[in-house]
Fold this sequence. Notes:
Blueprint: H1 2-35, E1 46-51, E2 53-54, E3 59-65, E4 71-80, E5 83-92, E6 98-104, E7 112-120, E8 123-131
Parallel strand pairs: 2-8
Antiparallel strand pairs: 1-3, 3-6, 4-5, 4-7, 7-8
Amino acid sequence: MRNKLLYILIFSIFIAGCGKEIDKIQYVNKLSTIEVRGEVVSEILKVIDSNTTLKRGEIGYIIIQGKPRTRYTLQSSFRIGSKEQYVTQWRVTGGSGQATFNWVVDFETAPGTHDISITGNGEKIHLTHTVLP
Length: 133
């Protein structure tokens, strides 16, 4: 009987202590959320949506997620006839860290696949865009 009472006492102390630890963790998480005002800030540049395989006359786009209020640069190229054309676009991300790059494929653009690089905040990603025949 004494052993059962001792086990119950130890078990209740253990449970009470665990509850306090969970409360501390939840409190810390609430403080962290308050500090960043509920805004999830990702400093990792990534593509969240894109349409880069296109026919002539279609609209291409790349939506990125980066650091909020930061300038990002897209550099690419395409061919018209035998001449390589180079393109540079700049976008500044909004408060959510997203920006959209877009373009229209000219009817004289030659079919092929070309490199795209997007840079900003010390980061760089590489993609390709394809113009179909």
